[in-house]
Specification:
Length: 76
């Protein structure tokens, strides 16, 4: 899982389910820097484990943290 190019089945998971998974993660301001994961039911894809990490967006003098899904795996 160290290879960032391996995103599993993330491309097959509709965006609405990825958003649902990210909403289940802890608040970004209290979460550590480690990778977080959550399991959701993703419609026709079935049960999926979504992996996410914190990302920092910078816009001039302003910046904010957000969750970014980087991998998905089917759960049996």
């Amino acid at each position: 899982m160290n290879d960032d190019t391996d995103n599993g089945i993330l491309a097959r998971v509709p965006g609405q389910y990825i958003a649902e998974a990210l909403a289940q993660l802890p608040p970004i301001n209290i979460a550590g820097d480690q990778i977080h994961e959550t399991v959701i039911e993703a419609g026709h894809v079935g049960k999926v484990r979504i992996f996410a990490r914190k990302q920092l967006a910078r816009h001039g003098k302003h910046s904010h943290w957000y969750w970014s899904a980087f991998r998905a795996a089917a759960v049996e």
